[in-house]
Amino acid sequence: MSRSKMLLVAGLGVCLTAVGFFAGQSIGKEGDKPRIYELRIYTALEGRMPALHARFRDHTIKLFEKHGMENGMYWVSAEDPNKLIYFISHASREAAKKSWADFVADPDWKAAKEASEKAGPILAKPPESTYMNLTDYSPLPK
Q: Which domains does the chain show, CATH number per domain?
């Protein structure tokens, strides 16, 4: 198993508890349809993680909400400080597709991305993404 796949599997394990927590907040928002979760992993170029954090902190999280994506939790990998791992949730796969299309077309996102990359690119490679469905045995918040 490649290192990135191992990190993805580890990230999934870490997310399970958090997903259970947010599931209690998300189940029922769209009727009886459970939300779909998206795990994302970003790998920053050496020395560019502060710029990635600033972009998320100052722009991305708000823009996700604007476009119907519910923010979950955000982590930095304990094994690789250049990896940002987070999850968001969507009402459905179709809603995710629309939200992402609207997000990348948003002039505010384009301006934030451009401004954050004035000193050069931030990411070493495109983000990794995995969609997840909550299991029926996942713990919910008490």
A: 3-133 (3.30.70.100)
